[in-house]
Design a protein that fits this description.
Blueprint: E1 39-45, H1 50-63, E2 67-73, H2 76-85, E3 90-93, E4 105-119, H3 129-136, E5 154-158, H4 163-171, E6 183-185, H5 188-196, E7 201-206, H6 207-215, E8 220-223, H7 232-236, E9 243-250, H8 256-265, H9 271-276
Parallel strand pairs: 1-2, 1-3, 5-6, 5-7
Antiparallel strand pairs: 3-9, 4-7, 4-8, 4-9
Amino acid sequence: MKKLKTLAFIPIGLTICIGLQACTQSSPIATQPTNKLQGKLVVTGSSTVAPLAGEIAKRFESEYPDVRVDVQTGGSSRGMADVRTGVADIGMVSRSLKDEETDLQSFAIARDGIGIIVHKDNPVQSLSNQQIVDIYTGKIDNWQQVNGNNAQITVVNKAEGRSTLELFLDYFQLQNSDIKSSVVIGDNQQGIKTVAGNPNAIGYVSIGTAEFSLHNGVTIKLLPLNGIAATTENVQNETFPLSRPLNLVTQNQPQGLSQALIEFAQSPQVHDIVQQQEFVPISQ
């Protein structure tokens, strides 16, 4: 059996619904003929994975015109719940599966990091882990306390059910009840938009999504973590301390159309899409 390779997808008839560590091992999937693929797949979950999955799905649909893939966001928790209840064929999860989630099959398609973002005009160039903890727990509430401007800090936190929140809390050894948030957002784009529109805000988002926004002129900047620059390059060389796999999950071993799409999303055919989305392809 051959291990699947990395990547994601979205359809030409795509619907994206905004609701909102080493990579996981992929289970082997037997290759099946795909020359007569037809039908529809529903894919739901992580807002980090969705744009990547969407672009991959468009390419998949272009190769198989009788296939439609409906990609919907709403968070990793939704993706897992929808797969378990049969609402979705495939879930998108932007973290490794937990020990209690062994009922699901996981297939890594890319790697990403989680970075701290502030407004581009914020003079603060770095924060220690303790300073980040103190900001998020309200012990530091003015940028002047960390060599910034004399301004109240706007703390942007993620909503419950988001994998980015879970990983942030785990890394900084916090409980969500410890967080003194000013704003609670859902997906990465909401977080980036909030920080870009507020010179005194701080948030944490997907590094890939943040770099993509930076390259398109959005007024944010990524702060280093533990002295390591928050870049996809450092995610790839495994020096950045807060990274994660981006996974597709199914309830059972995938077959038929689901199998074909996952194999396609893990193949070198979509590595260019992974890189265009500022994520890191996974070699298996």
